[in-house]
Amino acid sequence: MAVRWMRTMTMAMALVAAMVSHLWGAGGEGTVTTSTVAEQTGVAVTIYNSNLGLVKDLRTLHLPRGRSQLRFMDVATAIIPASVSIRSLSDAAGLNVLEQNYEYDLLSPQKLMDKYVGKEVKLYQKNPYSEREEVTTATLLSNNNGPVFRIGNEITFGHPGRVIFPELPGSLIASPTLVWLLENGREKPHAVEAAYLTGGIGWHADYVLTLNERDDAADLGGWVTITNNSGATYRDAAVKLVAGDVNRVRDEAQPRLRGKVMLAEAAAPAPQFREEGLLEYHMYTLQHPSTIKDNQSKQISLLSAAGIPVRKELLLSGASYYYQEAYSGDIAKKQKIGVYIELENREKNHLGMPLPRGTVRVYKKDGDKSLQFVGEDAIDHTPRDEKVRIKLGEAFDVVADKRQTDWKKRANDSYEAAYEISIRNHKKEAVVVRVTEPVPGDWQVLDSSHDYVKADSGTLEYKIPVAADGEAKLTYRVLMRY
Fold first, then answer.
1. Residues in a beta bridge with 452
2. 459-464 average pLDDT score
3. What is the pLDDT of residues 10-37, one digit of tens each?
4. What is the DSSP letter of 65?
């Protein structure tokens, strides 16, 4: 009877052990595989100009057959957890994801103290007289605004010694980690791709435009500045940049850190990006791998073009408010006249690549053949065959005065007004000033001293030549109904 009972117990224990072994091996947290950047075989980063990046991390993993846990380390700290995915490139059907987690309870002195509240620690203190380190065992009672200890039967705080912990709590990790519960159906290693979106990484374009002596041609160099604050380094990465206004459900902070713009009189390096369309955006692919370090700004040449035809324009813009009522004489004295440079993004002009949004800085050589900064402006995304217009600043030697010389109310909804614009040119060469006036309502010109065009339904436009060291007077009378 005893022998039969022993046999039964032995069989039962063996069955329980087998069940435990099966559950331990296939139940999730028994078998754990840790993957670090050491297993990485490649990484690709697609960077958007909206503080967003898509990371594709390629690694070779040796996973146990059946169910196990994978701890995927060395990912960006600014990761967007809901965007994470993993797939096997070797055998898509042979690797199934049952559960995924993102662990970000990172190790820090504060959290380490918090985890040991109610537990014993050791306090090391150097005796100032003997210069020996004395060890005291204490219980950490609290860590609110500083640690509170029980040493023996006494309570103390502000202990000057070092706190020594017996071990690292399992819930704290040194770096953010992705954790997957996987079902693996093969013995061979898997080549996997983990993809996720991350914040903290973005790019912007900077351009250097160098004018020639006559201001009718220029050289253009474009640079891409990539700023990485995502919390990860991407080594020898395949880099792609996406330009365009990508819709996001929730806007995130967009730090804009500028690196130095590389400016040299020598020709810029050959472009390093290949451009292509992507949906309604444009993508620029770097033609060689590049390492993007964490907390780094990197500049890469985008384009280089020489001898681009440009057109300089002096523009005097009016305001609609002085067409609304009577003024007694002067409207503006010594009004500033804007200076603009315009070029066309066409292949025949040595351009033709869609230009991403960025800042254009303009330079020109002085009498000593030294480059000098003459202005900058922001440009929006510019497709091929479209114009790029850059405001440099305000003219120094060309100014204008504006006067209202007449104002009449012709009817309840009709007004007649006359104006005089005096433009003075103190330069040694003649100039042409384009004058635009935003005339409201339904209007017509009754009288004018110069030829004009109706640029659109609300804009009266003139081109006024002004001789060197000369003055030109423009007079006109308009009838408005509004």
1. none
2. 98
3. 444 444 333 433 433 444 455 889 999 9
4. S
Mean pLDDT of 52-65: 95
Residue 221 has pLDDT above 60, yes or no: yes
Q: Which own/partner pairs from 243-246 qualify as long-range (CB within 8 Å, at least 24 positions apart)?
A: 243/49, 243/205, 243/281, 243/282, 243/283, 243/284, 243/354, 243/356, 243/357, 243/381, 244/49, 244/278, 244/280, 244/281, 244/282, 244/381, 245/50, 245/381, 246/48, 246/50, 246/52, 246/281
Structure tokens at 59: 């690694």
Two tokens, residue 271: 């472009």
Contacts of 133 (CB under 8 A, 6+ apart): 124, 125, 126, 127
Would you say the C-alpha torsion 6, 7, 12, 13 has a positive or negative sign?
positive
d(CA 138, CA 121): 6
Best CA proximity match to 421, nearest among 459, 448, 397:
448
Q: Where are the beta strands (DSSP E) in 66-127?
A: 66-72, 85-88, 95-103, 120-126
Read off the tokens for 468: 């060197």
Closest CA to 50 of 258, 227, 190: 227
Q: If you average pLDDT over residues 463-480, what whole number do you get?
A: 97
Which helix (H) or strand (E) element contains residue 198? Answer: strand 190-198
In the numeric block, the tokens 């390492």 are attached to 291
| pLDDT (tens digit per residue) in 256-280 | 333 333 333 334 455 576 666 665 6
Question: In this structure, are residues 213 and 312 in contact, taking their beta carbons and an 8 Å threshold?
Answer: no
Give me the count of residues in the chain.
482
Question: Residue 292 above 50 pLDDT?
Answer: yes
Q: Give domain 312-353+387-481's CATH number out of 3.30.70, 2.30.30, 1.10.10, 2.60.40.
A: 2.60.40
What DSSP string describes 351-378?
--SPBPSEEEEEEEE-TTS-EEEEEEEE
